[in-house]
Amino acid sequence: MKKAITILGIESSCDETSASILVDGIVLSNFIAGQQIHESFGGVVPELASRAHQQNILPVISEAIKSSGIEMSQIDAIAYTRGPGLLGSLIVGSSFAKGMAMGLNIPLIEVNHMHGHILAHFIKEKEGINKFPEFPFLCLTVSGGHTQIVLVKDYFDMQIIGQTIDDAAGEAFDKVAKILGFPYPGGPLVDKFAKNGDANKYKFPHPKVPGLDFSFSGLKTSFLNFVKNNLTANPNFIIENKESICASIQKTIIDILLHKLKQASQETGINNIAIAGGVSANSGLRSALKQAEENLNWNVFIPKFEYCTDNAAMIAIVGYLKYLNKDFSHQNLEPQARYNF
Questions:
Q1: Number of domains the chain is built from
Q2: Which of 218, 266, 323, 341 is deepest in the core (most CB within 10 A)?
């Protein structure tokens, strides 16, 4: 009888400490510890993030193993995020993974964080129907640090065919939230208020960027000037129009993303479309993709909410797929804040 493959995944690229246990690609546990300490600073403070990871990593891993029902001796390999991300945070996760792998005398598997987001679509669950994208597919990866269109030919045969030339879509959402005075993290609040607003009330410019690349820096500047000008005329402008402001700027960001995604689909002839990354949790983007699926005859794949933001299950599934190929890592590999795709 074939032995089941058990993978412990560890994610610590930014401000969330996460650990997950997967057995033959099926998720048994996926624990995430957030860091509320950053809220008062309006963004992630790298030094505070790394210290919080040091406090969280042992209890999070212990809970992931305990709740999975497996014994530590059953773990076949440890997969960890090597990069990209905050260097201090990556060091905590990678150091723990290396030490634990050495202590258990089991293989170590380094994972590119962005591969994790994309391959999260292949996480299996015990219950329900597991629906996976067929190769090749296009994946729109949208987060606070990345905005890319990736041509995925196989699990580890991926090519970036479009990306932002400046700021990421997630960064644009966060900047919008900050301008409106929302607490950190503000992106989900923009989404929340947008649900009750008129998305066509205000118009914002779309950048003219050649090819399949994106740009969001000009949109952020335009939005800042828009708010300043309207506050000058009416100090209560944000309070009185919060929902429609959020709905309008969210629609603009989503329209920019989908315009390039549609272009990529036309140019490649691929209609298998997936999204990944933190912004893929945005309800407006999810709804727009479902609408595009109907109108454009796409096969759309949208991850469950728990696999959109940073989590260890996505690291563990990459680890599982690499384990099948015996693609193991050396103890001397260093974390990479900027890690080539």
A1: 2
A2: 323
pLDDT of the residue at 39: 58
Residue 339 included in any domain: no
143 lies in the same domain as 20? no
Q: What is the 3-state secondary structure (H, E, C) of 240-283?
A: HHHHHHHHHHHHHHHHHHHHHHHHHHHHHCCCEEEEECHHHHCH
DSSP string, 160-216: EEEEBSS--HHHHHHHHHHHTTPPSS-HHHHHHHHTTS-TTSS--PPP--STT-B--
Q: Are 23 and 75 in contact (CB under 8 A)?
A: no
Say whether pTM exceeds 0.90. yes
Same domain for 165 and 21: no
Q: What is the pLDDT of residue 38?
A: 45
CB within 8 Å of 127: residues ≥ 6 apart: none
pLDDT lower than 50: segments of the chain: 38
CATH code of residue 274: 3.30.420.40
The CA-CA-CA angle for residues 204, 207, 210, to 5°, reads 160
pLDDT score at 296 = 95
**Which stretches of the chain are DSSP H helices?**
46-68, 87-104, 113-119, 169-179, 187-194, 217-233, 237-268, 283-296, 312-324
| Backbone angles phi and psi of 339, in degrees to 5 | -120, 115
Instruction: Please tell me the predicted confidence (pLDDT) of residue 127.
Output: 79
Rounded to whole angstroms, the Cα distance separating 117 from 34 reads 18
Are 289 and 226 in the same domain? yes
Residues 144 and 121 in one domain: no
15 SS3 class: coil
Domain containing residue 185: 137-305
